[in-house]
Specification:
elongated, alpha+beta, about 40% helix, 5 helices, Umud Fragment, subunit A
């Protein structure tokens, strides 16, 4: 019979089961804690790896940020000589063939140009169009009004060599002058009509818009036919201008050769209060000026009025600041462009080396 003994045996087995159950629960708890700790460590490792990735390049083996900065600095110093060379080359090209600045040291072009004005001279314009009446031109007086050889423009290589030499203070710039063109080849220029005006091909000029206030068109009489390839030029301050009128006894009868013209003064750039364009006055736009006119009487010369202080309207070249500034402005984008092209070519070469053609 079972009875009390079975009941006692059952009670004897229950405590063991309870002990084993407690042990299993403890083991499960320990495993849970260990897993949590492992997960926490893994997350910490992932965070550290992510932070490390942010400080490095996205691709394996790429240089770090500090290395990239050093490489950029080295690249800048390598590019700097190229930038300087390109800027200098552009400055010489601009000064020789395009634009040059001059300053005015005398008052013979007042009030259009005042003493110490700075003007820009366009050297391209007369390769595109002819010299017009009313243009203010800068020219070399050697061989026309001053002793010497009449200047002749050489080929582009000779001009570049002269421009390069002048950038560094070498060469002979000549006697540079600035005047207004009154007569072009074929014109009959004379003074004066019954109202005391200068005439071109018999057409009187209304010059009050640019003459020095109160100045007469001319106190010296003249009458000349401008020969081919030459120009009759005068200053705007007629009483104090040494111009074509005063050189009628020289070769060319006071005219200057077109080949001596350097370019057209088209704008005053300094001082800022004097900024303005230098357009052709309206009186030179009269259609009748282009009509052929019969030859007048022989040229009549006269001496300057006693006590007059005659001035030659010279135009002195300025320093190299303007062509260098323009050259630098052009050199920066050109240098950047060639650098981008070089980088792209190098990248394509690297991609070409990495690519392996499929085997047949």
């Amino acid at each position: 019979m079972s009875g009390p003994q079975d009941s006692a045996a059952s009670e004897a087995q229950d405590p063991g089961s309870a002990v084993r159950s407690d042990a299993d629960s403890q083991a499960t708890a320990d495993e849970t804690v260990a897993n949590a700790q492992a997960d926490g460590q893994a997350k910490a490792d992932d965070a550290a790896a992510s932070a490390g990735d942010e400080g490095s390049a996205s691709s394996p083996g790429a240089p770090r940020a500090g290395h990239r900065r050093k490489r950029k600095q080295r690249s800048f110093w390598r590019e700097l000589p190229i930038l300087i060379a390109v800027a200098l080359l552009l400055a010489v090209v601009i000064k020789t063939y395009a634009i040059q600045a001059f300053y005015i040291p005398s008052g013979s072009m007042e009030n259009t140009l005042q003493i110490n004005d700075r003007v820009l001279v366009n050297k391209i314009v007369y390769h595109i169009r002819d010299i017009h009446r009313g243009d203010i031109v800068v020219f070399n007086g050697d061989g026309s009004w001053d002793p010497g050889t009449i200047p002749v423009n050489g080929n582009i290589f000779q001009q570049f060599a002269d421009g390069f030499a002048s950038m560094f203070g070498f060469g002979h710039p000549g006697d540079i002058l600035i005047k207004r063109v009154i007569g072009i080849p074929g014109d009959r220029v004379a003074c004066c009509d019954a109202q005391g005006r200068v005439t071109v091909n018999g057409v009187p000029l209304n010059e009050q818009s640019y003459l020095y206030p109160g100045a007469a068109p001319s106190e010296m009489r003249f009458n000349i036919r401008v020969q081919p390839g030459r120009l009759w030029v005068m200053g705007d301050n007629r009483l104090y201008s040494d111009d074509s009128r005063d050189h009628q006894g020289d070769p060319g009868g006071g005219t200057i050769p077109e080949s001596a013209v350097i370019g057209r003064a088209f704008i005053i750039i300094w001082p800022p209060s004097r900024w303005r364009l230098l357009p052709i006055p309206a009186t030179f736009n009269q259609p009748a000026l282009n009509a052929s006119h019969a030859a007048g009487p022989p040229a009549v010369g006269a001496q300057p009025a006693a006590g007059a202080d005659w001035l030659t309207a010279r135009a002195e070249p300025t320093g190299q600041a303007i062509p260098l500034a323009l050259g630098s402005a052009g050199a920066i984008p050109l240098t950047w462009l060639q650098r981008r092209v070089r980088i792209r070519i190098a990248a394509r070469r690297r991609r070409g080396r990495k690519w392996t053609p499929p085997r047949g």
